[in-house]
Design a protein that fits this description.
The protein is α+β, with helices and mostly antiparallel strands. It is built from five helices and six strands, in the order E-H-E-E-E-E-H-E-H-H-H. Strand 3 and strand 4 form a beta hairpin.
């Protein structure tokens, strides 16, 4: 079951309320997809796939709340996380920054997001990169 882990207060609402888009379904065998790093329930297509369904999403936050109500998704609230849990998550974010060498592309959307939402993580990352 997918779990959205909030790493700051009210994160799910802030990143998804009012967001519109589409969720596409595709039929694929295990050999046609690859695991998606850090997202156990997601897969990345290794080749073009036929789309078998499409859901228009008018408000992602409302959809997520429906999924929670139906038992199809959970939300790990920020307020319920220990300092130790948050520290592990923040270390994982810092590891991603290092892996992608974000110091070289500080204006990309992920680097900007981390700087704005996790300034301590960004500053620690920069100190270690110098």
């Amino acid at each position: 079951m997918p779990v959205y882990h909030e790493l700051y207060p009210d994160a799910l609402r802030q990143v998804s309320e009012g967001v519109r888009g589409y969720i596409y379904e595709a039929g694929a065998g295990e050999k046609q997809v690859l695991p998606f790093k850090n997202i156990p329930c997601a897969r990345l297509a290794a080749e073009p796939l036929a789309v078998t369904g499409c859901l228009e999403v008018k408000n992602a936050y409302e959809l997520f709340l429906e999924y929670v109500e139906q038992g199809q998704m959970r939300i790990g609230r920020f307020e319920d996380k220990s300092e130790q849990e948050l520290s592990r998550w923040y270390s994982m974010i810092k590891g991603c920054l290092k892996e992608k060498e974000m110091v070289k592309i500080p204006d990309c959307s992920y680097a900007v997001f981390v700087r704005n939402r996790f300034p301590g993580v960004w500053e620690e990352y920069l100190r270690e990169e110098v």
